[in-house]
Design goal:
heterodimer, A: 534 residues, mainly alpha, B: 449 residues, Arc Repressor Mutant, subunit A, 3-stranded antiparallel β-sheet, 63% helix
Chain lengths: 534, 449
C-alpha cells in the first residue's frame, strides 16, 4: 500500500499538492479542499468563481448553502491529475466514478460542490479502510450527489424543518429549544409585518417613498411655490438635494435572497478527519467539514508529535489555523481552546511569525478574562514585550491598565515591566541585564528589538564617553556574548576604524564615532512593520 | 396637543435650530419635567402617526418637510416609550431594554437623516443632528454596559473570535451611524451660508469621543484625513462656534499627545486652553491633564500652585510628582509614580509622566554640581569658576539616596550618559579616570548654571 495518501482531485479543482506529505500510516491527509476559486476560467460560459452570497448581517450567518455555479472540467486538470498519477495508482473504476460525479450533466444545483467533495472523500476513504477499493462495483454505486439527496430526504422525514438544517449526515444541528426560540424571533424581527424581502431590507427605503405614494408627485410640482413662502431657503439647494436623493437609497441594491432565514447558532461539526488544510471562510461553515472537539483533541496530539518530529512550520501553522477556525465556528471556548492558542502562539514565536503570534495573543487575552486556565502570566508577559517591540504605546498603556497588583509581582510579568521601564528611561545597563535573564520564551521577542536597542545604547555611549572605552565595556553593557561579537557588531555598522588596540586591550574610540550609530538607530526605530498586525 | 410643538413652531418661526433640537431630546427641559412623559402618554401606538400628522400639518411646511418631521416625531415617540420602559426595567435585564432604546433611537436618526437627504431640511436645523447623535452614543453605551444576556450573537466568518466586537457591539454601531451624519454634513454641496458643513465639528467631536471610548483612536485619523481633503470647501476652524473649536482642539491635542508628538500637542492644547470658557472648570481640568505632562517634557517646567488651585483633582494627580521632581528626589518620584499609577494609566499619562524622572534626575545632578563648589583660583581678581570635574562616585552617591541598595558604577554612568545624550547635561564621561567633565559654560542648560 502506498504510504502517501491523496484522493484524486475531481475535475474542476486543482489537486494542489500539499506542502506536507504524511508519512504515518494511521492518519490520512486529504487534499480535497477547494483551491479552485482562484483559477480563472476562460473557456466556458459559467463563471469559474463560486458566487458568494452577500452578507446580510453580522448576527445571522447564512447557514444555507450559497448558490453554486458548477464548473465544467478544465484543461488544467489533466496536468494536475497526471501529476497525481505518479504518486498514487487509483483503480480505474474509482477514477471514472470521480469523473462521472463531476460531469456537468449530472451535477445537482441543490448540492454544493463542497458537500459533494466531502461525500466523495468519505466514500472513498471508507472503501479504502474496508479494503474494498478494488472489489466495490464503482459503476453501480450512486453518485455523491445522489447519496446526499437521499440523506436529505431521510433527514426531512425526521424533522419537518430539516430543509433549514441541511447536513450531509442528517444530524448536524443539535437544535436546542432556546435557539429555536431565538430563530423564530429573528425571523419576525427581520421581516417586520411580513413585508416581502425587497421591501423590508433597505432600512432607509427611499424606494418606498418613491413608489408607494403617488401623492408625492403632486407635492413636487407644488414645491417651487412653497419655497417662496419659507424663510431662507435656497431653491438651488433644495433642487440639488432632490437630485441627490435619486441616488440616495432608492436604487441601492435591496436584493435579498428569497430563501428562508438560516438558523443562528454555532455549527456542530461532523468531520472525522484529523488534518485539514486551512481555508478562509467566505460563507457559512459546512458541518461535514468541521471537526468536533473530540477530533480536534486528537488533531492537537498529532500536530504536537509532528512538530517535534518534523518541524515543518508552514504545515503546522496552516493546520493550527484550521483548528482555530473549527473552534471558532463551533464557539468552543474552554481550556482546550486556550491550549490550542497557547501552543500556536509559542510555535509562531519560536519561528518569529509575529503576525500569527499576535492573532493568538489577542484571542488569549480575551480567553484569559474568562478564567479558562492556561498560562496567563507567561502570555501577559509576552504581550508586554510584544508591544515594546512594536512601539505601541497605546496598547502598552492598555496592558498596564489590565494588570492587577498581584500580577505585577509575578516573575515573568515583573521582568517584562522592568524591561519596559528600563527602555523608557534609557537605562540600557539594566535593559541588557534583563535581556540576559529573560524567562520562558520571551527571549524570542526580545531578540527582535535587541539590535535596535543596542544601536540606541551605542548612540548614547558615543555621545557621552570620551575619548574611548574598553571593548569589554561595550560587550558587558550591551549584553554581547563575547568581545568578538561586540567587535563584529561595531564592524557591521562600518565602525572598524573605531577599534584600536592599546596596551594589549581592545578599545573602542567612542569619541570619534560621530553619527554612524545615530543614523542606524533612527533607521532601526523607523520600521517596525509586522505582517498581520492591526 | 403638546408643548413640544409649541417649541417646534417657535423654532421654525425664528429659525432657531437649538430650540428645535431640544424638542428631540429624550431628557425633558427642567422647566417642564413631565414634558417627555406627557408627550408619550398623549397618544398611543395605533393613533400616533395620525395624531402627529394633525400636529404638524397645520404649520404649512413644505409637504416633503412635513412628512419628514412626522416620521421623525413618530420614531421619537416610539423611542421615548422605550426610554421610559428601560428606566423602569428590572435590574439584571437592563441590556435588552437599553438595546431596544438604542434601536428605536437609531430609527429617529434614520428618519432625521432622511429628512436631510430626501425632505429638504435646511441647514439651520443641524443642532437636531447634534442632539440625536449625542443620545445615540449615550444609549449605545448604556446598552453595552447593561446586564443580562445579549440578544444578537455576533458571528462573522472570522477565524477567531472578536472579543471587542461583542463587548462594544452597540457603540461600534453608533460610531458607524455617527459617521453617516459626518458624511451628510461633509458632502453637503449647498453654498456655505446654508451648508450643513457648519455642523461638522460638533459631529467630529462626537466621533472622537466615541473612538476614544472604543479604544480605537487611530480611526480619528480617517476623519482628519477626510476634512483635510475637503479643506478648500470648508470655512477655517476659527469661524466655527467656539465650543466646537475647543473640544476639537482638545481631542487633536490628545491624539498628538498619544502619538508622542508633544510639540503639536502642546500647541493645540494651549489653543484649547485659551479659548475655553472661563467657567468650564471640568473642561479646563481635562485640558490641563494633558497640557501639564506635555509642558513638563517640552519645557521642563512644572505647574505652579496658583494654576492648580481651582482643581483639587489635578493637585492630587500632579503635586506629589511635582514636589519630587523639584527636589530631585528619585526615590520619592518612583514611589509617587507607583502610588498614582492606576489613575495615570486610566488617563493615559503614565508613560509620559514616567519620563519626568529625567527632570528629577537632572535636578539631583545639578545639586551635586552646585554642592561641588568652586575651583580654587590663584588670582582673586578672576571670577570664581565652578568645579567641573566631578567624580562619578559623587553622582552615584546622590542617586542612591533613599534607595536601599547602592547603584553600581556602570549603571550610574549609563544614567549620566543618558543625561548627556538628551542634552539635559553638557559634558562627557572620562571612564578611565572615573570622572565627569562638565561644560564650563552652562553644564545644565536652561537652569542658570
Amino acid at each position: 500500500m502506498n504510504t502517501s495518501w491523496a484522493v484524486p482531485p475531481p475535475p474542476g479543482t486543482q489537486g494542489q499538492p500539499y506542502g506536507y506529505q504524511s508519512k504515518s500510516q494511521s492518519h490520512i491527509a486529504f487534499k480535497l479542499h477547494k483551491t479552485s476559486r482562484a483559477v480563472p476560467d476562460m473557456s466556458t460560459d459559467p463563471p469559474a468563481y463560486h458566487p458568494v452570497q452577500v452578507r446580510q448581517s453580522f448576527s445571522q450567518p447564512a447557514l444555507h448553502y450559497p448558490p453554486m455555479v458548477q464548473q465544467p472540467p478544465q484543461a488544467t486538470d489533466q496536468a494536475a491529475e497526471a501529476g497525481e498519477k505518479k504518486k498514487i495508482d487509483w483503480p480505474v473504476p474509482v477514477r471514472n466514478y470521480v469523473q462521472r460525479s463531476f460531469e456537468p450533466g449530472r451535477m445537482d444545483p441543490d448540492v454544493p460542490r463542497a458537500e459533494m467533495e466531502a461525500k466523495l472523500k468519505e466514500t472513498i476513504s471508507t472503501a479504502t479502510e474496508k479494503n474494498v477499493l478494488y472489489t466495490l462495483d464503482w459503476d453501480k454505486l450512486p453518485l455523491p450527489q445522489e447519496m446526499i439527496r437521499h440523506d436529505r430526504r431521510k433527514a426531512a422525514g425526521v424533522a419537518q424543518e430539516a430543509w433549514r438544517q441541511q447536513s450531509a449526515a442528517g444530524k448536524s444541528f443539535v437544535d436546542t429549544s432556546t435557539s429555536k426560540k431565538r430563530k423564530s424571533q429573528e425571523l419576525v424581527g427581520d421581516n417586520e409585518d411580513s413585508l416581502p424581502p425587497w421591501r423590508a431590507t433597505n432600512p432607509r427605503n427611499g424606494f418606498e417613498d418613491r413608489v408607494t405614494y403617488p401623492a408625492e408627485r403632486f407635492d413636487k410640482r407644488q414645491q417651487p411655490i412653497q419655497d417662496e413662502n419659507l424663510k431662507g431657503t435656497s431653491k438651488f439647494h433644495k433642487n440639488l438635494e432632490k437630485r441627490q436623493r435619486r441616488f440616495d437609497g432608492g436604487y441601492k441594491s435591496s436584493y435579498k435572497s428569497p430563501s428562508p432565514e438560516p438558523v443562528s447558532g454555532p455549527v456542530i461539526g461532523t468531520c472525522q478527519i484529523l488534518e485539514k488544510q486551512y481555508f478562509r471562510l467566505t460563507s457559512a461553515p459546512i458541518p461535514s467539514q468541521v471537526r468536533p472537539e473530540s477530533i480536534l483533541r486528537q488533531t492537537l496530539d498529532l500536530l504536537k508529535k509532528k512538530w517535534k518530529k518534523e518541524g515543518n512550520y508552514s504545515y503546522i501553522c496552516d493546520q493550527f489555523k484550521s483548528m482555530r477556525q473549527d473552534l471558532t465556528v463551533q464557539r468552543i471556548k474552554n481550556a482546550f481552546t486556550v491550549t490550542v492558542y497557547e501552543i500556536h502562539a509559542r510555535i509562531a514565536l519560536e519561528k518569529g511569525d509575529l503576525g500569527e503570534y499576535n492573532q493568538c495573543q489577542t484571542q488569549l487575552r480575551a480567553l484569559y478574562t474568562q478564567n479558562l486556565g492556561g498560562n496567563p502570566v507567561e502570555f501577559k508577559a509576552y504581550r508586554i514585550l510584544y508591544f515594546i517591540h512594536t512601539s505601541n504605546r497605546t496598547a502598552l498603556n492598555d496592558v498596564l491598565a489590565d494588570l492587577t497588583t498581584a500580577e505585577k509581582q509575578e516573575k515573568a510579568i515583573k521582568h517584562a515591566l522592568d524591561v519596559r521601564s528600563a527602555l523608557a528611561l534609557g537605562n540600557y545597563h539594566r535593559f541588557f541585564r534583563l535581556y540576559l535573564e529573560t524567562p520562558n520564551m520571551g527571549a524570542y521577542l526580545m531578540d527582535m528589538f535587541v539590535v535596535r536597542e543596542r544601536l540606541a545604547a551605542m548612540s548614547n555611549i558615543c555621545r557621552a564617553f570620551k575619548p574611548d572605552v574598553p571593548l569589554r565595556f561595550v560587550t558587558e553593557e550591551l549584553g554581547f556574548e563575547s568581545d568578538s561579537d561586540a567587535a563584529q557588531f561595531i564592524c557591521d555598522y562600518n565602525g572598524q576604524a573605531l577599534l584600536e588596540e592599546k596596551e594589549g586591550n581592545m578599545r573602542f574610540l567612542s569619541g570619534k564615532a560621530g553619527q554612524i550609530f545615530e543614523v542606524a538607530k533612527s533607521e532601526a526605530f523607523r520600521k517596525v512593520d509586522i505582517k498581520g498586525q492591526i | 396637543m403638546n408643548p413640544i410643538f409649541d417649541d417646534f413652531r417657535e423654532a421654525y418661526e425664528n429659525g432657531d435650530g437649538y430650540l428645535l433640537s431640544q424638542t428631540l431630546s429624550p431628557i425633558p427641559p427642567s422647566s417642564q419635567p413631565q414634558r417627555v412623559y406627557n408627550f408619550f402618554r398623549s397618544t398611543n401606538f395605533a393613533a400616533a402617526q395620525k395624531d402627529l400628522k394633525q400636529q404638524i400639518l397645520p404649520f404649512k411646511l413644505d409637504p416633503d418637510e412635513s412628512k419628514g418631521w412626522i416620521e421623525i416625531y413618530h420614531a421619537y415617540w416610539k423611542a421615548v416609550g422605550e426610554v421610559l420602559n428601560a428606566e423602569n426595567a428590572q435590574k439584571g435585564n437592563t441590556k435588552a431594554a437599553w438595546s431596544k432604546v438604542y434601536d428605536a433611537w437609531k430609527e429617529v436618526l434614520n428618519a432625521l437623516i432622511r429628512g436631510y437627504t430626501n425632505c429638504g431640511f435646511e441647514a439651520w436645523t443641524v443642532p437636531c443632528l447634534y442632539v440625536v447623535g449625542k443620545y445615540l452614543r449615550i444609549f449605545a453605551i448604556k446598552a453595552d454596559e447593561g446586564s443580562g444576556n445579549s440578544i444578537g450573537a455576533v458571528t462573522s466568518f472570522q477565524d477567531d473570535f472578536n472579543p471587542e466586537a461583542e463587548k462594544n457591539e452597540k457603540l461600534e454601531d453608533a460610531a458607524r451611524q455617527l459617521n453617516r451624519i459626518f458624511q451628510i454634513c461633509l458632502a453637503d454641496r449647498a453654498e456655505i451660508g446654508e451648508s450643513r458643513k457648519w455642523g461638522i465639528y460638533n459631529i467630529i467631536n462626537l466621533l472622537f469621543k466615541t473612538y476614544f471610548k472604543l479604544n480605537s483612536i487611530s480611526l480619528s485619523k480617517n476623519i482628519l484625513k477626510a476634512i483635510q481633503a475637503y479643506r478648500g470647501d470648508m470655512p477655517t476652524l476659527d469661524k466655527f462656534p467656539v465650543g466646537h473649536q475647543v473640544t476639537f482642539k482638545y481631542y487633536i491635542g490628545v491624539i498628538y499627545f498619544l502619538d508622542e508628538n508633544y510639540a503639536e500637542s502642546e500647541k493645540n492644547l494651549t489653543e484649547a486652553w485659551q479659548l475655553c470658557h472661563k467657567d468650564a472648570i471640568r473642561n479646563k481640568e481635562l485640558i490641563l491633564t494633558y497640557l501639564i505632562p506635555c509642558h513638563l517634557l517640552t519645557t521642563h517646567t512644572l505647574p505652579t500652585l496658583a494654576l492648580l488651585s481651582p482643581y483639587p483633582r489635578l493637585q492630587k494627580l500632579f503635586l506629589p510628582l511635582s514636589r519630587c521632581i523639584k527636589k530631585g528626589d528619585l526615590a520619592g518620584f518612583d514611589a509617587a509614580l507607583v502610588a498614582g499609577e492606576d489613575e495615570f494609566v486610566k488617563r493615559r499619562i503614565y508613560l509620559t509622566l514616567e519620563r519626568g524622572r529625567d527632570i528629577a534626575l537632572r535636578n539631583l545632578l545639578r545639586k551635586v554640581f552646585i554642592a561641588g563648589g568652586f575651583e580654587e583660583t590663584k588670582d582673586a581678581a578672576t571670577p570664581p569658576v565652578r568645579r567641573t570635574r566631578i567624580p562619578v562616585a559623587e553622582f552615584g552617591a546622590a542617586i542612591s539616596i533613599g534607595s536601599k541598595e547602592t547603584m553600581d558604577n556602570d549603571e550610574v554612568e549609563c544614567l549620566l550618559a543618558n543625561m548627556i545624550y538628551k542634552n539635559l547635561m553638557k559634558g562627557y564621561i572620562a571612564r578611565e579616570r572615573g570622572i565627569v567633565v562638565l561644560s564650563k559654560g552652562g553644564a545644565f542648560p536652561g537652569t542658570g548654571v
